[in-house]
Amino acid sequence: SPICRRKDGCVSTSCGWARCGPLPCYASSTAIPCSSTTAATTLNTATCRWACCPRRCWWSTPSPPASEGWTSCGAPNRTSTTWAPGTWSSTACDSSGSRPTVCRIAVLSFHTSPLALPGTRHSGGLNVYVRAVSRELGRRGHCLDIFTRRTDPDSPSVMELAPNVRLVQLDAGPHEADKEDLYPHLPEFVRRLASYAEARGIAYDLVHSHYWLSGWAGQMLKERWGVPHVIMFHTLGEVKLRFHPGEREHPHRLEAERQIALAADRIVCASRGERDALVRLYGVPAQRVEVVPCGVDTGLFRPLGRQRARAELGLPGDVPIVLFVGRLEPLKGLDLLLRAHARLQSPALLVIVGGDERDEALRSRLRSLGRRLSSLQRVMFLPAVPHEELPLYYSAADVCAVPSHYESFGLVALESMACGTPVVASRVGGLQELVRDGETGFLVSPARPDTFARGLERLLSDPALRDALGRRARLAALGYQWPQVAERVEAIYRQVLGPRRLLTAHGGCR
User: Fold this and answer.
1) Is the pLDDT of residue 387 over 70?
2) Mapping DSSP to helix (H, G, I), strand (E, B) and coil, where does residue 464 land?
3) What Rg, from alpha-carbon coordinates, does the chain have?
4) How far apart, in whole angstroms, are the C-alpha atoms of residue 153 and residue 174?
5) How far apart are CA 245 and CA 263, in angstroms?
């Protein structure tokens, strides 16, 4: 570790310098008591001795030293009320492949919490992704704070999600709000996030944002802190509108998305199709876009036995079951699925798992469609269930239907495959790259209920084909693991951080 020396006699009376080898030093003439906390990027006061490295400063003693002395950039000093998070690594995390002991990462999920129930409003694959990748990066030693809006006034502001991973809930806008109404509250979110970091003396190496709203906040923090910004959009407004012109989008989304995409240091996307759209529609240089497919916990999502699963769920054991899992929204293609289901020769039960009481209006419209199609008696609507319960539903089904008009990846399809249940999916977006047509499931036109029905019928009428595709689906899913996703995301962090000196947390994350 570099040695830090304190020298008296800077530009103002009683002010000192802290120096870390050849790295820059900063000075402040403002006296700050050693018992207070600060995130100043300038340092040295009349009352404290400081140790400094770029973008992080902390004091090393609770009172001024009696005489000139040395200050080590070594292990954290816990006598101060500010946690000295560790040392500055003598080796950078760079593209040569050297790995930091720890990066401190601010993860932004502004409009939806990782704790939200997947399949309810604004909650789905993004929430699963943020939670899973953050957990794996924490296991690799990194320190992550996930920032989101507070939606429950009684929930704690800070909670530990996993080792080295905290969830920080900030007040920004009303607790109950539609995501299309959240844009005006982004400046408040950024202010509160920055205040949180400053009050605790925390400085982040990098910002990783999810979805365009978080990307707006991430860009502001990049400029404020001078750190790299990595973003994963999860969905692109331009692409959604092309696949589903009736979709409602915020009027600022398309232009904001373009500006965020062009300014980000790196964009992570889950499919080659999304990468191509970023290059073609948004003008993003291809070298700044990295394709990292999503993952699945194959220990949790595994075949459980069809009859056992049906018995546990109270589902009938003597009829074929077609399963849908996801949010109840037009983009998911449930109207197409109901029309396809009504065309089936098989007396299959359609089980729709998703939504909550806020989605009753759309659920009512879907029931009305089922009545007009004379198939409602073979449709079962169930509310969204905790993520860890989904393997039972996938295992109980004969086939999983993913009729979306657009999917950037299709995590539901991957989870179903991991449970050994083949998929019939729309030939759109990332589903085209995930589902191997005729091997792990079938890809069909998203606009044709008749072709979707034929895909379902092929699997429902041929148990041997269904079982063969299910076995191959499970094998294919084993190639998508969250630890490997985190490893590739970590490599992207190395690329954007380059020769920056990074934090080594000897004392762990605080």
Assistant:
1) yes
2) helix
3) 26
4) 10
5) 27
How many of the other CB atoms lie within 10 Å of CB of 48? 25
Pair 75, 507: CB distance under 8 Å: yes
- Asked if 144 and 269 sit in the same domain, the reply is yes
Write a three-state SS string for 350-374. EEEECCCHHHHHHHHHHHHHHHHCC
Tens digits of residue pLDDT in 5-14? 333 333 333 3
Cα 227 to Cα 225: distance, rounded to the nearest angstrom: 6
Expressed as residue numbers, the domain containing 367 is 306-479
Task: Please tell me the total count of domains within the chain.
Answer: 3
The mean of the pLDDT values for the chain is 81
CATH of the domain at 249: 3.40.50.2000
Q: How far apart are the first and last CA of the chain?
A: 21
Residue 483's contacts (CB-CB under 8 Å, 6 or more residues apart) are 136, 139, 295
- Cα distance between residue 67 and residue 170, in whole Å: 43
pLDDT of residue 241: 86
Q: Using the 8-state DSSP alphabet, how is residue 398 labeled?
A: S
Q: Is 95 inside any structural domain? A: no
Burial of 425 (0-12, 13-18, 19+ CB in 10 A): buried
Question: What confidence category does residue 246 fall into, taking pLDDT thresholds of 50, 70 and 90?
Answer: low
In the 8-state DSSP scheme, what is residue 294?
Answer: -
CA distance 50 to 39: 12
Residues 329 and 433 in one domain: yes
Give me the DSSP letters along 320-345: -EEEEES--SGGG-HHHHHHHHHT-S
Q: How many C-beta atoms surround the C-beta of residue 355 within 10 A?
A: 23
Distance CA(384)–CA(57), nearest Å, equals 46
Distances (CA, A) of 66 to 14, 137, 208: 13, 43, 43
Are residue 247 and residue 265 in the same domain, yes or no? yes
pLDDT tens-place string over residues 323-351? 999 999 888 999 999 999 999 999 999 99
- Between CA 488 and CA 62 the distance in angstroms is 41
Higher pLDDT, 90 or 116: 116
Selected residue with higher pLDDT from 52 and 393: 393
Q: What is the pLDDT of residues 119-140, one digit of tens each?
A: 887 788 999 999 999 999 999 9
Residues 311 and 427 in one domain: yes
pLDDT (tens digit per residue) in 166-186? 999 999 878 777 777 789 999
Task: Find, among 305, 307, 255, 302, the residue nearest to 282 by Cα.
Answer: 255
The pLDDT of residue 412 is 98
What percent helix, strand, coil does the chain show, rounded to 5? 35, 20, 45
Region label for 164, one of left (φ > 0), alpha (ψ between -120 and 50) or beta (otherwise): left
- CB contact burial 225-236 (16+ within 10 A = b; e otherwise): bebbbbbbbbbb
Q: Answer yes or no: are the C-beta atoms of 184 and 83 closer than 8 Å.
A: no
Q: At which residue do the structure tokens 């199709």 appear?
A: 273
